Amino acid sequence: DGCLIRGVCHSSKENRSIERNHHLEDYKEKIRKLLNSEKGIKKRKQRSVEVEPVFAHLKHCNNFKRFTLKGLKKVELEFGLHALAHNLRKKVA
Length: 93
Known about the structure:
Blueprint: H1 6-9, H2 22-36, H3 38-50, H4 52-60, H5 72-92
InterPro entries: Tnp_DDE_dom
Protein name: Transposase DDE domain-containing protein
Pfam families: DDE_Tnp_1_6
């Protein structure tokens, strides 16, 4: 009746089916091309200089590990407060 270790992969009694979204695959390919273009590479390098240090500072100095609120609007508000505090500290220093 098929594979001896079938239960390791899935618990369904029926055969496993995998659906692929071809629009998603096309979109991923488009994004991959943009990221690997000359402009995309330049933007990625810029991000590592401008944005990543802010996240590192929030995590290390502010002991920010995870959001305490739930829901997109509340998380946006919470992150906005962290960003505001970060910018105020930069302005004062």
